[in-house]
Task: structure prediction
Amino acid sequence: MRLSRRNRIPVNNIDKLPSGLYRPSFERDNCGFGLIAQMDGKASHWLVKTAIGSLGCLTHRGAIAPDGKTGDGCGLLFKKPDDFLRTLAQELGFTLADHYAVGMVFLHQDPSLADAARKQLEHQLDREGLTVAGWRRVPTDSSACGSEALKSLPVIEQIFVNAPEKSPLPPFVKGGGESSSPPLSKGERGGEIFDEASFQRHLYIARRRTEKAVKNDATFYIVSLSATVIAYKGLVMPANLPVFYPDLQDERFASALCVYHQRFSTNTWPQWRLAQPFRYLAHNGEINTIQGNRYWSMARSQKFATPLIPNMDDVRPLVSMTGSDSLSLDNMLEALLAGGVDLFHAMRLLIPPAWQNDKTLDPELRAFYEYNSMHMEPWDGPAGIVLSDGRYAVCAMDRNGLRPARYVITRDRHITLASETGVYDYAPGDVVAKGRLKPGQMIAADTQTGQLLLPDDIDNQLKARHPYRAWLKQYTKQLTAPENPAVEPDMDEAALFVQQKLFQVSFEERDQILRVLAESGQEAVGSMGDDTPMAVLSRQHRPLADYFRQQFAQVTNPPIDPLREAIVMSLNTCLGRERNLFDSDSTHAARLTIDSPVLSEGQFQQLLNLNDPDYAVQCIDLNYTGTGSLQAAVEQVCANAEAAVRSGKVIIVLSDRAITKESLAIPALLAVGAVHHRLIRLGLRCDANIVVETGTARDPHHFAVLIGYGATAVYPYLAYACLRDMVRTGEITGQDIAKVLANYRKGIDKGLYKIISKMGISTIASYRGAQLFEAVGLHDEVVDLCFTGTTSRLQGTNFADLEDDQRQLARLAWSPRKPLQQGGQLKYVHGGEYHCYNPDVVQTLQVAVKSGDYKTYLQFAELVNTRPIATLRDMLVLRDNIKPIAVDEVEPIEAILPRFDSAGMSLGALSPEAHEALAVAMNRLGGRSNSGEGGEDPRRYGTEKTSKIKQVAAGRFGVTPAYLINAEVLQIKIAQGAKPGEGGQLPGEKVNQMIAELRYARPGVSLISPPPHHDIYSIEDLAQLIFDLKQINPQALVSVKLVAEAGVGTVAAGVAKAYADLITISGYDGGTGASPLTSVKYAGSPWELGLTETHQTMRANDLRGRVRLQTDGGLKTGYDVIKAAILGAESFGFGTGPMVALGCKYLRICHLNTCATGVATQHDGLRKDHFIGLPEMVENYFKFVARETREWLAKLGVKTLAELIGRTDLLQAISGDTAKQQRLDLAPILSDAGVPKDKPQYCTQARNEPFDKGELAEQMVSDMLDAITHQRGGSFNYRVRNVNRSIGARLSGEIARRHGNQGMAGAPISVHLKGTAGQSFGVWNAGGLYMHLEGDANDYVGKGMAGGKLAIYPPRESHFKSNETAIIGNTCLYGATGGKLFAAGLAGERFAVRNSGSTAVVEGIGDHGCEYMTDGIVVVLGAAGLNFGAGMTGGFAFVLDLDNTFSERYNPELVDLHRIHTPGMEQHAAYLRNLIQDYVDETGSQWGQVILDDFATVADKFWLIKAKAAKLEHLLGAPRVSIHDLITPVYVAAASAAAAEVR
Amino acid sequence: MANNFQFLDIPRQDPNKTPADERIHQFKEIYGQFNPTAAGDQAGRCIACGNPYCEWKCPVHNYIPNWLKLIAEGRLFEAAELSHKTNSLPEVCGRVCPQDRLCEGACTLNDGFGAVTIGSIEKYITDEAVKQGWRPDMSGVVATGKRVAIIGAGPAGLGCADILTRNGVKAIVFDRYEEIGGLLTFGIPPFKLEKEVIKTRRRLMEEMGVEFVLNTNIGKDIPFQKLLAEYDAVFLGMGTYTYMKGNFPGEDLPGVYDALPYLISNVNRVLGLERRPADFIDMQGQRVMVLGGGDTAMDCNRTAIRQGAASVSCVYRRDEANMPGSRREVANAKEEGVQFVWNSQPVEIIGTDKVEGVKLVTTVLGPPDARGRRVPEIIPGSAEIIPADRVIIAFGFRPSPAAWLAEFNVQLDTQGRVQAPANGTFKHQTSNPKIFSGGDMVRGSDLVVTAVFEGREAAQGILDYLEV
Result:
């Protein structure tokens, strides 16, 4: 069984899906976390109780199994409750030594297995000279567990371990490699110094040996085994944790420090051992780089040497290759600590801040990070980490600040820090300080000294350890050869001709890819989707890179915007041997650095000629004589590389350049992967670098695969030779060769940034070797040798096929009569690659829908259904031994049509005429059209032109309360098939008056859609957004659109647990209005894989019955519908099909606004004179498809489409036409994955109701509904807690439903609240809703706010200074379109991101303020963080800059700065002053008053920041008037009834 | 930067056309040439569709958008190279292809914007490039020592010779006429295709190494057996020369002519190749009636006009929308004074010892037949006689296979076409492995461009057969 061979995980659940597409490695988890500590180390049971209570306040961040009881796991990690444990020991008659440890152990239910494990642990402890005092059966109450948890409930015991009187290991080495580390605690005992670190180390070694010795027992797990901490965790809900563990209720259980965690796993097979915290840490977020980190830790483990662990093999492997990312991170941390690295240093190594591009960073500190960067790549990703070693309580934040962490310090010297503020009821008057952790920061409380170590304290300590800067200066070399055209002579024309043919450079690639890169330094942009076959299905010879689909972040982690947030990105690359991390000395600074892995001609020459033994070069030729086999040739290259490294070579250059007529070239990617893995296995990888000189690297994806499989740097000689040739022939003019080459590299660099950021990765070091690809159609023999560990699920192309390709290419290449390939990958070319939307298909369809003639449609269907194999489904055909029924017996097409939706296409991408025609057609048919992400003209609401599906995408354009109310389905677009993981941009010239109005922007201003939803960085964030949407429109169904990739099923399971009602799985072949071509070509997988994996995983998780599943991507005919239904879909999305029906000719020029058919343009003339589409054409199309579907159903003997869902028994795989196709194994697609037949195949419930019933919100509605209905106004009072989420949304929804966005503005309701508001306070606030909050609030305050007012101020009795204290969380005012927000305190990261109209005043903000802002006014009465104003194209801001540092922190690309005390700015100053006055009136802010009192003086410390494109004198002009606000929308009353229908 | 809206900003503009009243007095091409700016402007109107419908519709699948882009960028020689990658006679196709039914008809911009002037640009590319000194790049060609005999110097034979030569195979082209081109030279009137064009092409091909053996009738002057013995392979590209008949009374009357002899006699006179003045068929002062609606009919119409006919009427049995000929040619004919009589079917040529008139019946179009063309149905009692002095019959051609083919085991189909399938083991190989064939004699009468394509494809088959 392939699955178990590749993923040897000792887990019970492994055999749950014996076949099929699921892999355990797909699991993801995100969560809520926190810690509480008494800073002076005073233990109390109160702290224990409070920690548990706080954990309970994070329940909404976890998930709950269908049994309603089993959580995904939660846990507590305590500083050892010494008194309690000693008492227990005494009661049990154990003799405890002065120094002892306690282990928490999960044992198997089978007594013999449990016993074996116990014995093993005892034995290993004994070997380390430690004595076991006894075992205690931990009391548990299984009534707290749900049925899922009970299935795997372990026996839980504690082991008490005594340290010997004297150190058991001679010599017991003191301290670590870092003498100046903060000392680990040392106990005084009878005058003799006891070394606690050493004790811990022996425990660690004993544990690791035990873990390795106990095989075949997946339950056995040592939760903790430490002299300083102990963990209690389990698969229960937080509230039930003390029920399950009565210990926790024991008053004697007192601790001074507790780290807690609540898990949200994407599937419902949570495991006891994966509950957090682990041995040191608990983690909220996801380590995007985990695959690379794991491989590098394996590769590097041979480099780790320390006298502290005499035999490293005892503990290797250091890092688990499976389990969760957090577990692996904990492993690595533990290993570093065991090796003597101290806690702070270790954390900074693992999760460094973004030091490369931060101009404000202290040079000494930068040197510290730079020095360390070579020895450990960042473990990057959204990460909030809390951890403890029993002494320090530490919290660290990733470079992007993508997880919230808020802290409160109270008068009794308790610090509490959690994902949310307000997790326990401290008295407001007791609060000494409140704050939040910023991106890249770490803080710690030292419970031994009582010190609070702020980020600067820790940094200062670390940077001063060694003279890092001097070391670097002395030992670091840089590879910086200036562009020198003379370095490389032009390639001989004849030789270039052969090279191009051999490596498949076509005319099209030269013209469309290389030329664009060279001319503009940017990737080429195109539109529409990829309608060509996957490489394995193609009849052409496709490059190996084509088999690899880029992975991208969706839901469980966010992609990054590499353009607007370039500050966190780096391609910096180090060459040279790595050293032992546990030593620190000057020679460790030795390395050769380059600023990009894309080598210039000069750099490559320089590298070859260094003549430095530290960088000794060995070139290995990748051309082999055609007599051997490809596989043998690859092995030979590996052997040569191994020998070279063993002989001291450091730079291994793999080169395919020296082609000959007699030899074949090993695809460079094969060689790179194979060498990389060989060297890892042998522990040699970190002694060498792999540099590739190759003709196969030309576009960014080519580079990404090479680097992703281990290449350190790439020298694309053939791309350069082509560019030189193009300059020579005049194909590229106007720029000299140096500039052309530099542009090309710049373009590739940008492309690499895009590709790594798609996965949420910031540095190329973390991407290198991370293998973030799914291979589609590669045979195991290839994957196992060269791409070990890559997900590849269908077999396919093997070495023989690849060799055959090479042989045929060589034949063409060396035959002078064979011309350069013309192309055909991007556009249809006669004789080239097959295109599913080729001219015949398009034209036949257009004739059919215009004429309404079903016979013509059948010609179209025939063209599609019998095309040469182009998609996976083309290899699946209906069984022919099925007894048909009469067509009359099948449900009518009226029953089928409601299952059809049009795919999300925005107004903006489409012309209004096309957009409306689609909506009208879908409404008449009883299907649903999708607004896309561009808002919708409110005049369409309630008419047949309205879109029943309203999309909520990352740009949040025009997403207002009224928009959300006028929908049957609210679709959260996480990704789109054509460019998953990327944002978009609507260029200014396309933003005409109408588009601007709908999107709350001004005409001519470019609009940017960020790559991530800034309120979805993880699965529990998605759950929150879904909750927000269900609060504002309880009748609507919430849909989540995902794109197929390996693991999408697991993500979808998480989405179902986040209470989505519908999930769409899009294929890679979806369309787009504009996207870089390499995104269209190389990202996303076929929906046949994604849908099937989702269907299988959801069924296996008992989730299939809870959600409707839709698929889209290249669906064209009823036959497609039938196959999609069989593979698990009950609903079907069509994008390009209906567009073609409306006249689209598949011109692929949507991005130019020149669409000659008037479908995808805003150009007046084109729309008026050339758009021929009518709703009837779309209606004809869908009726034809439904009719064809019905006829197929009859042939299959199935009466309804519902019955067909999941009936994979009706399909059979055909063997295929080509050798590659014949080697495909499609059984996993047709598998039922071992799930019993009686489990639902489709959605069986009307909606997926959230666990959180939002009682307070319901109460508020019932109190105020009358006032809302009658527009009476009024005043109301409530108390709130952090568990009261999305407060105000229910009210805004009711307001918008009755009065539109602003209809109640004249009769406002005032709501007065006290306490801490949960997330999304005031989300989509409607006009006329005023909310005053005395207290503080969490993330997403005022998100999507359209009107009204939010005023937040500290409790009157508090003592802290508001301008130094956090009051609201991250991502506030995201996508707001109006209204006012006044918050008397500091706000978090990304304040006012995508603001398009609201006015806000706060006293300080975090990084990335006003990002992508298009309108509105933001006043910051204090410091703003880094990267202010990135992507800001409209609106303006005032920032108070008391210490004159703002000019280094803003992003100057699109905005400029102005002073307001200068002549001519009087009006602006007065405007600001008035705003501050309003602010002080609303919040009573003392800081605001101070500024007002001295405004004349303070005014010259303010900056006015505005978009460069805007004119200063127009800023204060008439406010933008939006159509959304003028019109009272009509609520579609029928929506609720229709939405409830099971479809 | 290219202007993406050029297709809107600049209207479609053909090269200057000589005014009708001027051109009817001469046998010169009526279309002028683009200058580089106009060519660039017009080429730049191409919107580079994701589905290049022009290329798809083009029988040789010219890389039209790509060479349009090159012209828009002013890179003439690269355009010429690219144009020759798919077509051996681009300057000819640019002149004689019915673009309005092929590339320009399929052009996305043909819906309301005016299609890109593909034909004129195609013509411009080679004409202008050759004028500026461009020559096909033969530098990389390595002689193989193989030799192939090609019978027929028409489009198929020339296409075949072109590809063979570029791949190092010696092509020797035999033709019974004294000039190459076949119908290109003798069938198509000079006002569409000046004979200088063919001469230039002949020069180019001879420079490339093609050898022409003219005035040589295979089967008469040289036995076919000899070719078969002396060459590595033989290609047959001899076209279709049997005239279709109307099969109605009066076809044999004096004053009734078949289209081809009429056209050839005219070309011979224009080119000065006329052997005897009596061979010339003169329409001066005559009332001419041309029967048929294809491009050949148009050629006859317009030749007659130029010869000074008193009147020229063209009779066709379907309506204007359903005629097979190029619409552009119909328009030109109308401008030049040709009268069209649509929906009329000749049923008899009237006259005692010479033509006096033609009896026509009126038709209406019925439902489409199996091939999708609407069938004309005769309205009873609608007959009338239109007076005429000369009648030219232009109903098309049928295959005219040489009698000796059978001796060499070359099989024909029931309609007399040589069987040489495009998808055989070797493309266009006949039932005699050494003999290949393409063009009209395989397909039946068809377009010039189709013949070029088949000749080129057959050359690939020959190369594969010869293992070059």
Remarks:
- Chain B touches chain A at residues 4-5, 7-8, 47-53, 55-57, 61, 63, 66, 69, 75, 78, 82, 85, 106, 108-109, 111-113, 140-142, 166-168, 463, 468 (CB under 8 Å).
- The two ends of chain B are 44 Å apart (CA to CA).
- The longest helix of chain B spans residues 448-465.
